[in-house]
């Protein structure tokens, strides 16, 4: 059971780190785009804007993939907990049955 709790803590910590990294990435993208618009010619600003949007899309895609992986791991962890609880219940009933005789 301790291993399960440790794994849950790892997943929560990983999720927190990933969310913070994504937040920082989005901020940096917006900051670069804003700063560059002040000194670049119009054509270069448009190109930079498109590149920033592309980068933002890649960050969003990564966010979705990471969220999916975290959900998959969470589901797997929950399944393991349920199987463990079922096994413990079966053992408890068998002991009760054997001690009753």
Spatial shape: rod-shaped
Number of helical regions: 2
Q: Helical content, roughly?
A: over 70%
Order of helices and strands: HH
Strand content: under 5%
Query: How many strands in all?
Result: 0
**Cα-atom Rg, whole angstroms?**
25 Å
Notes on the structure:
With 101 residues, the protein is mainly alpha-helical. The chain has one domain (2-100). 93% of the residues lie in helices and 0% in strands. The chain is built from two helices and no strands. α1 (2-36) runs antiparallel to α2. The two termini are 31 Å apart. The mean pLDDT is 82.
Provide a brief overview of the structure.
The protein is 93% helix and 0% strand.
SSE diagram, text form:
Elements: H1 2-36, H2 42-100
What attributes characterize this protein structure?
101 residues
């Amino acid at each position: 059971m301790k291993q399960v709790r440790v794994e849950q803590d790892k997943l929560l910590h990983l999720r927190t780190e990933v969310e913070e990294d994504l937040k920082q990435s989005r901020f940096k993208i917006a900051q670069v785009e804003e700063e560059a618009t002040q000194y670049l010619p119009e054509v270069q600003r448009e190109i930079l804007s498109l590149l920033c949007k592309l980068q933002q899309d890649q960050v969003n895609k990564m966010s979705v993939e990471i969220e999916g992986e975290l959900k998959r791991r969470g589901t797997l962890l929950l399944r393991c907990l349920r199987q463990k609880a079922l096994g413990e219940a079966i053992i408890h009933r068998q002991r009760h049955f054997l001690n009753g005789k």
